[in-house]
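Sample A.
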Amino acid sequence: MFGKHIRLYLIGAVLGMLLLTGCWSRREIEELALVMAAAADAEGDNNVRLSVFIVNPREIGGGQPSGSGGGGGTNKVPGEIVSTTGSDFTEAARRIEEQIPRRLFWSHNRVIIVGDKLARRGLSWLDWFSRDRQMRLTTPVVLAPGEAREVLDLPPGVELVPGEIISGILNNHVTLKVELKELLSMWQAKGDNPVIPRITLVSAQEHSGSKTQGAGGTGQQSQEQGGGEGRTQRKAGPAAIRFEGAGVFKEGKLIGYLDHLETLGTMWLRGEVKEGVLTFNCPEHPSERVSVRFHRAQTQVTPQVEGDKITFLVKINSEGDLMEQTCQESLATPEKIEELEKALYHELNKRVQAALDKAQRELKTDIFGFGEVLHRENPKLWRQVEDNWNEIFAGAEVKLEAQVSIRRIGMSYNPAGGQGRNTGGKRVSPGGR
């Protein structure tokens, strides 16, 4: 009887092992082409172009550079750019895999770069980037003038690959950052419209500050094409990128751009400012400058409705530290600090008003998410205005109440090189207030 139970247990164990599955979807890293940056462009009237930067593991992993032999080395190429076209991005991605010996792997992608022409065509391209299971919704999205493909020609610098360069700058919190999931949310919301940061290409002379470029250029290889339409090596291209303004979308299409000042104002109104620097004129000496670094900022938007009139009250609370002043004014008294805080408020208000004027008067588009705030606070009213919200937003009043505080002035209340013009009255501790 006991032996019969043992046999039954053994049979059950064997059957259970047959039902167990292994890692059926496993892929070895040697079989994958790791995409570190992707560029999306319009091609002709109806097609699209997908360009990817595929990292070369031998170069970024410390191995022997590809193509080097024995003694003399060659310029390291941290990756390869492959570009091809299709009627949509699914077809274009499949065509890329026809040119490389590995399967594209998207989970390490650091950035999606969108060309201006494709952005004006519309945001329908987002479907593939948001649907594929390998895509990360936290991937940043940026706009590029001309062709986005050109941005992939960035040479190695502090970071080796273009995707790391762009995402690293965005993580410095010095400019607007929009991730794929945020872009989708802004696009789908009736009370908001997408705003995407814009990058421009910088030449070697401008990047280094030199007036002339030596013979031999940047030392990059010229473009070569083989096996079809878009497999490329390094070509002479931009030396760096710079974030410059942002693109504004309405009804899913790019309609215009914000300049640098308007973009900063938009960040304050959207509550996107976490840290940063404001530079403004000295209160008593407008030709000289003061810089304050913010380390805390909070924006609260409250809709106020009186009859048919909609007003938005924007409250901004922020505090920061004095980083530099070129004017010879002593900050030994609280009154001097208050003068700086008033000047700081006026600078902040200038940025906010620049963004409001551009959005309400020229673009007539809510790029601040005010409609979504109204939707949450007053759903009944929102149902009445949602179909014409951008037009109603253009006529809405926006009131700014900002509380800006300078908490610390550094190691001294006097400017460098002098004792200051005003040292009378109650003094302030240099470390704080």
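Sample B.
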Amino acid sequence: MRLLFALPGFHRYDRGAEVALLAVADALARTGDDVAVMGAGPARENTAYTYRSVGAVRRERFERFPFFPPLRSETAWEDASFVPGLLAAYRPGDYDAVVTCSFPFTHWALRRPSRRRPLQIFVTQNGDWPAYATNSEYRSFRCDGLVCTNPDYLARNRGQWPCTLVPNGVDLQRFRPGADERARLGLPADKPIVLMVSAFIETKRVLDGIRAVSQLGDAYLVVAGDGPLRSEGEALAARLLPDRFKRVSLAAGDMPALYRSADAFLHLSLLESFGNVFIEAWASGLPVVGHDSERLRWIFGDSGEFLCDTENQPVLVETLAAALARGRLREGQPQGIERFSWARIADQYREFIGALVAERNSVG
């Protein structure tokens, strides 16, 4: 198949959506599909897909801009700035299908009129609101296939769109138990470390994590992330976690070492579409503390022993303490994680998109 993956953050950020879709694109390219990727960042080495940088203004530049429909956030502003370059580079007839999780502007651009427009595949990495909402710009949403990253989204949308259920995956060669690298990363060797890999935005609840860890004696909190609430979070940590807090921004290549250097993983989002960080931490052997929900139970199965009501702070603190007491695996592979290998996930994408392409070709 001839496929295009398009997202402003490609090769610029290594957040959940970017990591997931690039991993799928690379895995598909390595097993025979003709895959192109368009994003705003620079080219990277050792990718199997063909990459083209089309530019966009960084989302951080828009943090103080006014928000209103459809420019509802700094990422929407970034998305809008991505479209001119995308339209200049995009040739619809070159592809059987195009894949994105960005709405509305990238989605609109990929649906530009064409004699033979490629199939439009939308992935619910950032939520399924575009697929079911009927207000404002969401009324314009159309797709030929919807990849749902959790069972809730599948149940809600399969009556309206051709759907499939495909979770995100993890690189099991990179994210695995092993020796820590605390000295190289500038982390204390004598304290239990709680790791959060979260943007400093309201929905990630990093400030709640700071408050919880502050009640755990000598536990040290590391937050890998950035965002509009960074200053507020750092000020709170300076007050509640003096000498027990560090915010880091690491290259993607250093993230496996960061996971291996922690003793427990904490992620407090209540509305995560999937959450790559959950399985990255799990694959690295960390006990994972997250909000107890059907969605996370579906991901973890019997391995979700540290899921709890994270909005109940005493319960959260108690669960964190139990996770730290268990600590991380030092070797081997956590049981159950193998179903999330990127090779398996890419096979599911290929099967779904390939069937849609074959169906369209069969009717002319």
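B remarks: The longest helix spans residues 342-362. The longest strand covers residues 34-39.
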